[in-house]
Specification:
This protein is an alpha+beta fold. Helix content is about 20%, strand content about 30%. It has two domains: about 120 residues, no CATH class; about 140 residues, no CATH class. The protein has a three-stranded antiparallel β-sheet, with no helix packed on it. A hairpin with a 4-residue loop joins strand 11 and strand 12. Helix 1 packs antiparallel against helix 2. The chain is elongated.
């Protein structure tokens, strides 16, 4: 009986975690560059149940043999194995702010992605698809958290004012003179990146990703006065959220049924 409680409880835990992830996705449906989290639910290994019984063998010595009768498989529950971002391109929309930039994917192999390069305060680089940049008090191009946007050479980008132009190839022009190139990093396997708060990604060892400009066959474009929207499908997320909630309720009712059965066994059968 208790095996069933553990199985139902594992289902509740998995669905609760899935609900939290879907809720976070929906909360970021309007966050520029946000990549929706995807979940993978798997089952624990099944147990093979068997019944062991004695049988008498009609011999002079009266031997007893143990017979094993297979009953069937028993599921031991499910668990949320992993979460991974969906790196599909979000919709591109116009903002009319010169400090807003959007990366438009071109020819990219499956599982790969490109990112803006940022200087992380703890050292090394961080990566993002959120191009909602601005200029700080010293004229440096920064993101919403104040992380410096890096150029192709790994330097900060300082501009005199917001009157600048960014070409499709990432080149930054002031008064028709190129002053920098927006740094773009390339992740051959984007699923190996570690997702952090505010839409940031970092490598597992803290190292820097290679430049996307130096990759043969990789194409992309950069659009100024545009942002990449979140790739969260609000309608699909709502449907999945309701499904997860119903599954949580179903497992909850199973545990309540077991609880009533045990209560009856203790209070009524136990008195006999």
């Amino acid at each position: 009986m208790f095996k069933g409680i553990y199985t139902a409880a594992s289902g509740m835990l998995a669905q609760q975690r899935k609900t939290e992830i879907l809720t976070n996705n929906m909360a970021n449906a309007n966050t520029p560059g946000y990549k929706a989290e995807q979940t993978t639910i798997r089952s624990f290994p099944e147990m093979l149940l068997s019944a062991i019984d004695d049988t008498n063998v009609p011999t002079k010595k009266g031997l007893n043999l143990n017979l094993i009768q297979p009953i069937g498989n028993l599921s031991t529950g499910i668990y949320l194995q992993e979460t991974m971002p969906n790196f599909a391109q979000g919709d591109i929309y116009e903002t009319e702010y010169t400090t807003n930039l959007a990366l438009v994917n071109g020819n990219l192999p499956a599982g790969s992605s490109i990112f803006f390069r940022l200087a992380h305060p703890d050292g090394g680089e961080a990566y993002t698809r959120n191009g909602n940049f601005t200029l700080d008090g010293q004229g440096y191009l920064v993101n919403a958290d104040g992380y410096y946007v890096l150029s192709e050479t790994g330097n900060r980008i300082q501009l005199p004012n917001e009157d600048f132009q960014v070409a499709d190839n990432g080149a930054v022009y002031v008064n028709n003179q190129q002053v920098a190139t927006i740094g773009v990093a390339y992740a051959q396997n984007a699923y190996q990146l570690i997702k952090q708060d505010n839409g940031l990604f970092r490598t597992q060892d803290g190292g820097a990703l290679p430049s996307a400009y130096a990759q043969n066959g990789i194409t992309f474009a950069m659009k100024q006065k545009y942002l990449e929207g979140s790739n969260v499908d609000a309608a699909q997320s709502m449907t999945q959220l309701l499904t997860a909630y119903r599954a949580f309720e179903a497992n909850q009712k199973v545990i309540q049924a077991y609880d009533k059965s045990m209560e009856k066994a203790v209070n009524e059968i136990g008195k006999v």
